[in-house]
Amino acid sequence: MALYHFHVEQIKRSEGRTAVASAAYRAGEKLHNLWDGETHDYTKKGGVIMTEIFLPGHAPKRLSDRYTLWNEVEQVEKRADAQLAYSFDIALQNELTLDENIELARAFCWEQFVARGMIVDLAVHEGKSKNEDEPDNPHFHVLAPIRPFTEDGSWGNKQKREYVLDEDGNRIKDA
């Protein structure tokens, strides 16, 4: 039976989270966060099948290193309540082979993020069920900085939402 799961959230310091810790967990790695001095060690975490960082053509190669990428994201944000990254957790299908699932995850990242100029940190997890009566839950994680990396070689501004308001200052939902 096909599974469906698609969860999106922001990694926010206001919730006690960091981009470095989030990246370390998803990749099953040990990373040191230069912003708060904490080291996050998830090397004993099992089930990580593969990880890969995708860069748009204008991003420098140094950002293909997970430590460098996420520490730069942390350093560019000065506020203690900063929003750092978008996190996506997406189910893969038990009916597909591992290679098909990985190709599906990679294609999704390229089409939905990298083709639009975003940097993506991908991690595919096996999601083995502890109960043999339940299906496995293979899934992938996408971690993307909220700030774009601009073609001029700097971290850009976060997007700002603009709403069309009526004469009373209320948001017009269809606009």
General description of the model:
It contains three helices and seven strands, in the order βαβββαβαββ. The chain has helices at 19-27, 66-76, 98-112; strands at residues 6-12, 30-32, 39-41, 48-54, 83-91, 120-125, 139-145. The relative contact order is 0.20.
Topology of helices and strands:
Blueprint: E1 6-12, H1 19-27, E2 30-32, E3 39-41, E4 48-54, H2 66-76, E5 83-91, H3 98-112, E6 120-125, E7 139-145
Antiparallel strand pairs: 1-5, 2-3, 4-6, 5-7, 6-7
Tags for this entry?
two-stranded antiparallel ribbon, five-stranded antiparallel sheet, alpha+beta, about 20% helix, about 180 residues
What order do the helices and strands follow? EHEEEHEHEE
The shape, in one word, is globular
Beta-strand percentage range? 15-25%
Structural class of the secondary elements?
A: alpha+beta
What's the end-to-end separation, in Å? 39 Å
Mean model confidence by pLDDT = 92
Sketch the major β-sheet: 5 strands, antiparallel
> Strand order, biggest sheet?
1-5-7-6-4
Total beta strands: 7
> What would you report as the Rg, rounded to the nearest angstrom?
18 Å
Low-confidence blocks of residues: none
